[in-house]
Protein: C4-dicarboxylate transporter DctA
Organism: Mycolicibacterium mucogenicum DSM 44124
Amino acid sequence: MATTMQPPKSEMIRLANKPPWYTSLFVQLLVAIVAGILVGWLQPKVGADLKPLADGFIKLIKMLIAPIIFCTVVLGIAHVGDLKSVGRIGVKALIYFEAVTTFALLFGLVVGNIVKPGAGFHVDAATLASGADAIAKKTQNKELPHTVDFLLNIIPESIFKAFTENNLLQVLFFAVLFGLALAKFGEKGPPVILEIVDHLSHVFFTVIGWVMRLAPLGAFGAMAYIIGQYGIGSLSSFAKLIGACYLAAVLFILVLGVVARVFAGVNLWKFVVYIKDELFLALGTASTEVVLPRIMAKLTNAGCSRTTTGLVVPTGYSFNLDGATLYLSICVLFLAQALGVNLSLGEQITAVLVLMLTSKGMAGVPGSSFLALSATVAAIGHGAIPVAAVALLLGADRIMDSMRVSVNLLGNCVATFVVANWEGQLDKDRLRKVLDGQDVPPLEEPDPIGDAAAGGPSKSAT
């Protein structure tokens, strides 16, 4: 008599211990985002009033980002204890950021020239007189910092001010110095301070674990607000621009996939599946900051060294905004085409050069995309394109957030893998097992981010 093949005992135990499908953060976020779209569409006023749910969740995450970055970077550098290694990682990361963001700008221009998203608008420049006031309101009358000011601002006036203002670059700068100092003292024996930082990191990631339980609520509020405030109709009004931007995003992600495979041996599709929860949360809340702690945790769990992850990811949040730069270059052409202006090759190159500078100071500035575009339009010096024309994008800008955050997030993850591989700090065997969903051994050094955010240090997150 034939016998039925039974699965291995280990597999039966794994299936028995698998939590119910409805407890998956991915499923909860998916339901929350769909529900938010429906509420915003069917009850726009109710949807617009749900913004505090998203704002509250984002504030809870931001409350913990600075101390988590500090602890992660300090622990990573203190264990490496090599100033030259830290310097090499920083220089390689900045070179990579500049190369990829410049490519993103040029790629956006190519897409904009082919698709021509502004063709057919036939906007009269004389009707844009009130545009300057609208842009001033959107940007709160602020300006992008000049290059020198931006670089000087990396040095904090006060350690405490860097933390209270949640200035990630300043926190990172101080953390690097603090970690190197601890590494030097470590030559005479592990300092008590390092143990304190280690324990603090566990505490902060425990709190993050609690806060993340509210993620579906935050995503629901954010999506309901976007649809309720701007309406489904705004999608049709700017359909060609939105289509061009999302097409460019998909094609650029394919390019990132090639970069990840060639320069780090990473299958980007498997990695996307691995971080699907974080990606959906970023898309739902239109913010990459809310997933920064978990992304750093998963990159570390997937084989990137703690030092590389701690240096590259936070720096990339200011210097490697691939999605934002892609969007900006397309929008420059959109404005010109909407006004019936044919930008010459020289004017388009000027736009790229200006955006290479302005896009680096965008992080943390309200309405930064409008400020960068305004500066670019002014620099081109084409009289037929008034700066007030940037106001044409007010109706579509918020809808582009999902495109920008997805490309920004994946761009920074790929950058971390590439730099880690260049430095010989990428455990490819661990990476393969994690992306294949296999169990992996505990990290050689105790990892404070493993337990709370990556599904445990001894197993890959699912």
Summary: The mean pLDDT is 77. The radius of gyration is 23 Å. The chain is about 70% helix and 0% strand. Residues 83-115 form the longest helix (33 residues).
